[in-house]
Amino acid sequence: MTTNEPAQEPRNPQDAPTERPLRVIVADDQAAVREPLAAVLDMSEDIDVVAAAADGTEVLAAVTAAPVDVVLMDLRMPVMDGVEATRRLSEEHPGTAVVVLTTFADDDSILAALSAGARGYLTKNAGRQDIVRAIRTAAAGHSVLDQEVQNRLLATVRTRSTAAAQPLPADLTRREREVLTLIGQGLPNRAIAGKLFVSEATVKTHINNLFAKAGIQDRADAVRRAIAAGLA
Q1: What pLDDT is stored for residue 6 in this prediction?
Q2: Closest alpha carbon to 139 in 55, 45, 3, 18
Q3: Mean pLDDT per 10-residue run, the chain (232 residues)?
Q4: Separation between Cα atoms, residue 76 and residue 83, nearest integer Å
Q5: What is residue 81's predicted lDDT score, i.e. its pLDDT?
Q6: 85-121 burial string, b = 16+ CB within 10 Å, else e?
Q7: What is the 3-state secondary structure (H, E, C) of the chain?
Q8: What predicted TM-score, i.e. pTM, was given to this entire model?
Q9: Is the N end or the C end of the chain the one with fewer CB atoms within 10 Å?
Q10: Cα separation, 231 vs 156, whole angstroms
């Protein structure tokens, strides 16, 4: 995990600090990872690391004691692993977002974490700025996958049969299909706006309408649906 990157000017809303500090928990069973990561994140003016947890039970106890915006979650931990902790948080504390930060990028780990409700998935070769951006993005209610994870997810979906895939509704507009196609290609909202020559606000409106019509749960689900429909 790289932490000595040069500072850069914000280039999109997720690069900019939030209006109030985000309350964050760092969960990792290795103190040599957990403590330096918590210290580095605490240097960001809009992030307040309120706890460092060694397993899922400590995460749940901390979130129950006081509201938390984001948990940065390792997957392989004793007592209660990251997948189970994510599932419990999704059910009991839906206002707390989970961003997975792990060395594991295999299909089973990725799909298990996303199915449990993780809003983001990063591998531990992510830099500090990538991690901070993912925390801000998840806190804002959006999903974030690093490129390695996204590539694995795309490859996994492409190899699976689409026979049982839920078809896209017939009433999707041409623009909504275009947006879904670009999501399936891995483009973020800003890039989609540039491709379609519209504002990011307009893209968000199309995405909201698309998700509502097609019953899409999140961005990862949108990628799967786009591939299954032959749009990506």
Answers
A1: 41
A2: 18
A3: 44 57 96 94 94 96 96 94 94 94 83 87 89 93 83 65 65 95 84 92 94 87 82 76
A4: 8
A5: 94
A6: bbbbbbeebeebbbbbbbebbeeebbbbbbebbbbbb
A7: CCCCCCCCCCCCHHHCCCCCCEEEEEECCCHHHHHHHHHHHCCCCCEEEEEEECCHHHHHHHHHHCCCCEEEECCCCCCCCHHHHHHHHHHHCCCCEEEEEECCCCHHHHHHHHHHCCCEEEECCCCHHHHHHHHHHHHCCCCEECHHHHHHHHHHHHHCCCCCCCCCCCCCCHHHHHHHHHHHCCCCHHHHHHHHCCCHHHHHHHHHHHHHHHCCCCHHHHHHHHHHCCCC
A8: 0.63
A9: N
A10: 16
Contacts of 163 (CB under 8 A, 6+ apart): none
Structure tokens at 168: 């896209």
Tell me the one-letter amino acid at 100: V
